Amino acid sequence: MKFVRFILIILFFSAVIVSCQKDQNVDLSLPKATKADTSDNSGNFFAVKGTLNVTVNDSTYTFDATKDSIAFINVNIDSNKYFGITAINKAHTVSFGISSPGFAAPDIVNGIAGGQLLFSADSKHVQQYALTNSEIPGEDNQIMLKEYMKDSVLTKGTFSATMVNKTVSHDQPAQIVQGNFNLRIK
Fold it and tell me: What residues contact 173, with CB distance under 8 A and at least 6 apart?
């Protein structure tokens, strides 16, 4: 139940961040990061440059901060701290989010507490991948921040998450979703 609540909170923050960015008509060429408009403005930023790449099966999806919405978020839920990355493409057909417990910092490897990847060709055809605890030998749900809030870098790193496609039969095997990000605030 906590996992479901956590995913819903992440999706809520994603929607708030994306809607605020679109409503404010943010100029992504600004030389500094645009602070996200949330109830707790401590460290939530839109990336203004850079990419987030997400690979599932044989496909790689690239979010480009100059045209898509990518945010680095810090959340406090019931006195528990989480950080994560959330993104949605300009066409609103692909969205992604992962979160990790604790504080963001450079040179850390941390577990992933929640994650979701959504594809939608239209409102009737949605594919949903969600984080699962299914074990795949040699794979851990983890995020590595190589850099964080240094000079013009918002964050840079990699992640690997075990996810299952929730829109197909319940016997669907878990899959590895991997990615990398290099996001800039200037």
Answer: 134, 164
pTM here is: 0.77
DSSP 33: P
Left if phi > 0, otherwise alpha if psi is -120 to 50, otherwise beta: which for 171?
A: alpha
Question: Strand 69-77 vs strand 45-46: parallel, antiparallel, or unpaired?
Answer: antiparallel
Residues of the chain with pLDDT under 50: 1-9, 11-13, 15-41
What sign results for the dihedral spanned by CA atoms 97, 75, 147, 3? negative
Is residue 178 within 8 Å of residue 143, measured between CB atoms?
no
> Are β-strands 153-165 and 69-77 bridged in parallel, bridged antiparallel, or unpaired?
unpaired
CA gyration radius for the chain? Answer: 16
CB contact set of 76 (below 8 Å; sequence gap of 6+): 40, 82
In total, how many domains does the chain have? Answer: 1
**Structural domain boundaries, residue 144:** 2-184
